Amino acid sequence: MTKPKVATTSLAGCFGCHMSVLDIDDRILKLIELVDFDKSPVDDIKEFTGRCLVGIVEGGCANEENVRVLQDFRKHCDILISLGDCAIMGGIPAMRNTISLQECLDEAYKNGPTVHNPSGKIPNDPEIPLLLDKVYPCHEVVKIDYHLPGCPPLADTIWQALVALLNDKPMDLPYELVKYD
Amino acid sequence: MSETYNFTIDGKEITGRPGQTILQAADEAGVYIPRLCAHKELCAHGSCRVCTVMVNGRPQSACTQPAGAGMVVENETPKLLGMRKQLIDMLFVEGNHFCMFCEKSGNCELQGLAYRFGIMAPQHPYMFQKKDVDASHPDIYIDQNRCIVCARCVRASHDVDGKSAFGFVGRGIHKKIAFNAEHNLSETKLAATDMAAGICPVGAIIKKRVGFAIPVGQRKYDTKPIGSDIEKR
Question: Do A139 and B225 touch (CB under 8 A)?
């Protein structure tokens, strides 16, 4: 019997949620008995090799590359999970959302107190993904099936959610495991 | 000497005293009705509508509606829960609530209600409106990003502290807290020891140099849902 596959990615996040995935400690040995990892920073597979049961997305969408990856995840995964506050509400990157993109770039590359940029140019290479006007939560870009809030979500939260999904059980998380910080 | 009377909440017999609101009588009887703007030491405001219950089939805010003999009150119904979730949802998307770095997180009543109702993510699109922060006062700062315009600070400052440091300006979505001063908060008479400085249900009014004083796991709503203290009675 082939094992179901899990894919993970970090969009506009800090990798803290992935750290929390690793924080399930020795249960990771049980996890790899239950599933295979596909596209994920955990095994460094860069592109999808096939259909996945679960896709775990950390971070919101701050640029066009984030949107492409997120749409790719939606295409390849049966169940998509927004993991953490950034995926759910934009998080720290979304603090720029009340300020215009031009103002943000000017502050970062021209006017900021620690900026040294004699040319005064704002990076605009075709290789650099274009920034979106603001940072979007994942569920405002594609359909998301489950949300696991937290900054980061507790390892127990992630573990219990995955075990429920893999065993086809309802995801009834206890009160202590759903926190926004 | 006062005469009591009976009414029911979700079928449970409640004894009320004259002059009590539904919320007050329910609190005494150990029945929790969710609320945000209501505070037991302040007069009722009836603005957040989270405490809305069905009274004899009609929606009423429990914090303003006097309890009466024979009333049939519905509180924990799927319909009311759905409505309360919507209200909390809208407050989350209307402000900029960054729980991950808010000093109030874990002790925040808005967050506490979201936890109690099992909200995993808002259903409405985030508005990300630009709001002001006033840190001019030596002991207190005000972050309008987190304000839910419940008027607790307005009432406390006016009715209890006798300073009227706060008021509202604007209407609808533009309504916000304003200060009774020419320019900023430091010009008001507000002091950190005032009731108004400590009564904010969210992290909009924060005392400086306190920070994240209580460790994660020991905060008010870390392990027990908001309202557990009332339900224990």
Answer: no
Where are chain A's structural domains? Answer: 5-96+134-177
Question: Does residue A139 belong to the interface with chain B, where contact is any CB pair within 8 Å?
Answer: yes
Inter-chain contact B131–A178, Cβ cutoff 8 Å?
no
Q: What is the rounded distance in angstroms from the CA atom of residue A23 to the CA atom of residue A4?
A: 21
Distances (CA, A) of A80 to A55, A125, A181: 5, 32, 21
Q: Tell me how far apart the alpha carbons of residues B155 and B167 are, in angstroms, rounded to a whole number.
A: 9
Q: Which residues pair with A56 in a beta bridge?
A: A8, A81
B120/A146 touch (CB, cutoff 8 Å), yes or no? yes
pLDDT along chain B (233 residues), means of 10: 89 96 97 97 96 98 97 98 97 97 97 97 95 97 97 97 96 94 95 97 98 96 97 85
The DSSP H or E segment spanning B114 is helix B109-117
Chain B residues lying within 8 Å of A98, measured CB to CB: 96, 128-131
Q: Looking up tokens 């900026």, which residue turns up?
A: A115
Domains of chain B from N-terminus onward: 5-76 (3.10.20.740), 84-207 (3.30.70.20)
CB contact under 8 Å between B98 and A92, yes or no, is yes
Contact (Cβ atoms closer than 8 angstroms) between residue B161 and residue B110: no
Q: Is A142 an 8 Å CB contact of chain B?
A: no
- Closest C-alpha among A82, A104, A87 to residue A95: A104
What CATH number does the domain located at A5-96+134-177 have?
3.40.50.700
Q: How far apart are CA B144 and CA B88, in angstroms?
A: 17
Give the whole-angstrom CA distance, residue B218 versus residue B224: 10
Residue linked to tokens 């909440």: B9
